[in-house]
Amino acid sequence: MRIDKRLVLIVAAALGAAVPGAAAADDAVSESDRFFLTEAESACASGDFPAFLWPYANSAAVRARYTALMVVTGAADSAREEAADLYLARDDFPIMMIDYSYVTGASARRFDVEGDPARLDYVAVDFGTLADDGARVDWMPGRFEPGEGDGPGTLIEKTGPGGRLEFERTIDCWRLTGDIRETAGAR
User: Fold this and answer.
1) What is the pLDDT of residues 158-184, one digit of tens each?
2) H or E segment to which residue 24 belongs
3) Which residue, among 149, 142, 92, 139, has the nearest Cα to 122 in the 3D structure?
4) pLDDT at 94 over 50
5) pLDDT digits over 109-163, tens only?
6) What pLDDT score was predicted for residue 64?
């Protein structure tokens, strides 16, 4: 029988019971992360992978919950498996969504420090499928021709190396199993 730890904490809190570590665990997750965790759970429940990628890309807490124990990382020709805790500790997920567009994770982190939106590097994101209902996300930074609706528009020029993210389908969601990045010379 599987016991949901969150349910135990919620019931204990409702009954006023003292649960060791419960307050610390709750304080460790920001309001933003709680929002993204809820969004990820909703996307998982509806089977909507593009909706799942948004909270995954924008929240370290979501990545911690939905990353496989081992992740294949590196360049395609030299990729290797590494433990999820080492992968997550680098905190350099390659893409992030700001407003309705994906940008490189590096430019989003720079934006957080400098606040200059002109320095955001937008990326094209292409969703695909893998065996056993897994998902693949190919991403490529570039210059875009404005289009209609949300997003950066149509990719007209690649401006740097991109990569791909691979997610395997689990019983109730997806989890990251691969973060393969092109080398600077690959275009």
Assistant:
1) 999 999 999 999 999 999 999 999 987
2) helix 22-28
3) 142
4) yes
5) 999 999 999 989 999 999 999 988 899 999 999 988 877 666 677 888 899 999 9
6) 97
Q: Do the Cβ atoms of 166 and 176 come closer than 8 Å?
A: yes
Among 103, 133, 132, CA closest to 116? 103
Q: Which residues contact 114 (CB under 8 A, 6 or more apart)?
A: none
> Right CATH number for 68-181 from 3.10.450, 2.60.120, 1.10.10, 1.20.120?
3.10.450
Which residues, in sequence order, are CB contacts of 107 under 8 Å at separation 6+?
A: 119, 120, 121
Q: What is the pTM of this model?
A: 0.80
CA pair distance 65, 181, nearest whole angstrom: 22
Q: Of the candidates 181, 166, 96, which has an alpha carbon nearest to the alpha carbon of residue 127?
A: 166
User: Residue 175 carries which side chain, given as an amino acid letter?
Assistant: R
Structure tokens given for 92: 């350099």
Q: Is 100 exposed, middle or buried (0-12, 13-18, 19+ CB in 10 A)?
A: exposed
Q: What are the extents of the domains in the chain?
A: 68-181
